[in-house]
Amino acid sequence: MSDFRPLTDHYSVAPQIDLEDVAAAKAAGFALVVNNRPDGEDSAAPQGDAIAHACAAEGLAYAAIPIGHAGFSHAQLDALDTLLRDATGPVLAYCRSGTRSTHLWALTRARAGDDVDAICAAAARAGYDLAALRPMMDALAGDA
């Protein structure tokens, strides 16, 4: 069952998706699926290549920005910035629970100069608490 949680009109997050969720993503109007899980993190979950093939079969773009135990890097924020800029429609990002996908988006948007309170509110509406991430978001917003 699909659990797509919108953060904006053009960006949603989800816990781990299954192959059948790719068709649901297409039906929901998504143009790009972003995988934020490293392959092998959970051998029982569909790996990136399987999701990529399912996306191709549905005519969806696919990208991977894996986020592991090392946390977030500017290169990952740059990669999401590029994907969001070049996306031809709404984006669905997923990880195990949706938290890493939400955090990556929040850090990327804070670095771009978006209002940090609004970012936190959008995440809260989707069920994600950004309180622990707030100092990093504020620091990135100060650099914008």
From TrEMBL:
InterPro entries on file: BLH_phosphatase-like, Prot-tyrosine_phosphatase-like
Gene3D superfamilies the UniProt entry points to: Protein tyrosine phosphatase superfamily
GO molecular function term, any single one: hydrolase activity
A Pfam family the protein falls into: BLH_phosphatase
Domain Beta-lactamase hydrolase-like protein phosphatase-like: 3-111
Entry protein name: Beta-lactamase hydrolase-like protein phosphatase-like domain-containing protein
Origin species: Sphingopyxis granuli
